[in-house]
Write the structure tokens for this entry.
Amino acid sequence: MQPIRLSLSTDAEPRHPRLWPWTAGFLVVAAVFLGFDIAAHPIVLWDESRLAVNALEMSRRGFSLITTYGFQPDLWNTKPPLLIWLEAGSLRLFGPSEWALRLPSLLAALATVGLIMRFSWRLSRSRFVTVGAAAALVFSQGYFGEHAAQSGDYDTLLCFFTSAYLLLLFEVLHERRADAGRVLLCGVLVACACLTKGIAGLAPGVGAFAYVVVRGRWPRLFQTPWYALAGLIVVVLVGGYYLLRERAAPGYLAAVRYNELGYRYLHGMNGHQQPPYYYLQWVIELFSLGPLLLLLLIAPFLRWMPTRSAAFLTYAGFVVVTLLLVFSLSRTKIYWYIVPIYPIVSIALAIVVHRLLQMIPHEPGRAAGEAKLIVIVLALYMIAAGLVQKLSLIPPHELNSQGLYGEVFAQLDRQGVRRVATLDGGVYNNDGLVDYSPQRRFYSLIWAGRGMDIRIQDPDKPLALAAGEVLVTCDPSYHRWTLARGRSLTNMADCAAVASSSPPRAG
């Protein structure tokens, strides 16, 4: 039997069809899906709230190499400050809010989608591969969900820079002559990835390096000075930051070595030591078409012409396997660390599915319809599953009571309350941080900037409220004790706000 030629096939399409309406239309869909709830959820405890405090304090004090918590140098969160700079700029430009904090991540997510579509089109000249890769990415819970595109965490911005340098490097390595500007841009993008999340910015590049060596393309790295100069750009920008940061506040490099190399990678955080198959399991669970990733295993056995798409499948295989290996060797395993893998597997899967659709046995009048039916079913499944996760499953999973301080302060402000004392014993953590409540701190800073006098009550000292002061807690440990002092002024079930005039409970 002869393979059919679908309307989805590269061979059946004009050489230069009008792609921009498809790209623009899908980017609008992606923007709505990724961003419609950007302001709907309170700041999340891990780790968005810590970064939110870093960014808000920097927006108040001015841009700096040093991120702070409590306006003191932050040696617990030791990542470089590129994301914090962007978030601080957004907070300063638009005012402090959840959506302003998350805006840089949302824009980075959309930029990654646009990047994937541009690369997929240049690679395949197929509308199916171009839109299919972007759709598989956007509707993946691992990409839009917790700690990713709808969060102020590092990983979405990191994903943009790693995707950009991986895809650009693939193009550069397969050009007849290396373009100086594009090679140097690779160096800048690698540096930006490192300035976003430290050594994690280099991890995806390990697979690209392995591809260059195994495929015998390493001599190209020495035929021009541009690759060496790109490496020098990375060393100067990243190394320069770390040296300047250490000089500005000594002790930073020691904290980096402990947090990012010794503590997390070699020894492991309590509660995050997982089996070797952990990341493979989560990639399948959090990818929009997770079980279909098994199709990548049969890709080498399909009939491939010597095309750039076929070469990219090999390249993607090196990147994905090496990335899984590098992260799996770490003693600390957390599922959102693997966000940069999703764009690469999205493109690879779209290429393989496109090839399989082309190989449906020929039966005039039926084959194209069967292929289109398969595509429609997969698309409806991705959209439905994504919406269920977005609307029903993720919000309650991310919410904890301490994230409600912002809404409580807003309700008290509408009642004319101007003086507040917060009582919170903090959340459990692996690092011995006492009374750690970064969500409370973020919202306290916001409302203090709006004129509310907010005092932190030490849980270990006797309670003493001033006249007109309202005691507020969203800590479950103090919720019932606070309600025993009188009627709550908030309708948030997990929080209590009691005026100082209420009679105290004995003991």
